[in-house]
Write a structure and sequence with these properties.
The protein is mainly β. The protein contains no helices and 11 strands. The strands form 2 sheets. Strands 2, 4, 5, 6, 9, 10 and 11 form a 7-stranded mixed sheet that branches. Strands 1-3-8-7 form a 4-stranded antiparallel sheet, with no helix packed on it. Strand 5 and strand 6 form a beta hairpin. The termini are far apart.
């Protein structure tokens, strides 16, 4: 059974940092792009960052220069380092690869 499990969310003050992890199990995802999405209340789910199998990355304009996506294929895990957090980053963050989604982890940034 394939599972993606996110962790690392929480409550942080504006300007702070968090590191999200997405641990995959059930199969190997090293050949596939992995992405982080987020969904704030009343808004559509949006792509935050993605990393391809060769390490190429893409970011939403709103997080460029503040967030860094990475992956450790040996651990079948993807990460999202989030620095200089802003209240508008508050959302549930989801990990995705192929057709699989995690259940999400809440990130709340207080002003």
């Amino acid at each position: 059974q394939v599972q993606l499990v996110e962790s690392g969310g929480g409550l942080v003050q504006a300007g702070g940092s968090l590191r999200l992890s997405c641990a995959a199990s059930g199969r190997t995802f090293s050949s596939y792009t992995m992405g982080w999405f987020r969904q704030a209340p009343g808004k559509q789910r949006e792509l935050v960052a993605a990393i391809s199998s060769d390490g190429s990355t893409t970011y939403a304009d709103s997080v460029k220069g503040r967030f860094t996506i990475s992956r450790d294929n040996a651990k079948n895990t993807a990460y999202l380092q989030m620095n200089s957090l802003k209240p508008e980053d508050t959302a549930v963050y989801y990990c995705n690869t192929i057709i699989y989604w995690g259940q999400g982890t809440q990130v709340t940034v207080s002003s």
